[in-house]
Structure formats: C-alpha cells, structure tokens
Amino acid sequence: MLVYSSETIRIRYFMDLLMEHKHPVMLVGNAGVGKTVLMADKLGSLSEQYAITNVSFNYYTSS
C-alpha cells in the first residue's frame, strides 16, 4: 500500500515525466524506503499495452 506524501508525489511526478519522454527510470535508496512499492504503484497504473517484467538483482548477480 502506497501512502501518498509530498515525497511520493514528487517522485511519482518525475517518474511520469521520464516515462512520458521514453527515458528509463531507476530508483535508488536504502532498504525499506519504498522503492518497490512506488514502482509497483506506477506499473499498476499503466495500460495493458505495456509488458511488465520483473528482474531481481542482488550482490550475487553478475553482468
């Protein structure tokens, strides 16, 4: 569940703006600050014309 605050609204605005101009979005921050919740909220609001794929990374992931 996303709690809307001035911070989440600000981040969501910039996510919308970047995606509107076809730029990638990457959220970076400490564990537990809501990156996944924010992204899930944004992806859940997209139309069905978008294909969504989750790719998990961790310190074991190599290039």
From TrEMBL:
What InterPro entries would the database entry show? DHC (IPR026983), P-loop_NTPase (IPR027417)
Q: Which GO terms describe its molecular function?
A: dynein intermediate chain binding; dynein light intermediate chain binding
Q: Name one GO biological process term.
A: microtubule-based movement
Q: State one Pfam family annotation.
A: AAA_7
Annotated GO CC locations? dynein complex
User: Which named protein is this?
Assistant: Uncharacterized protein
The source organism is Nesidiocoris tenuis
UniProt lineage: Eukaryota, Metazoa, Ecdysozoa, Arthropoda, Hexapoda
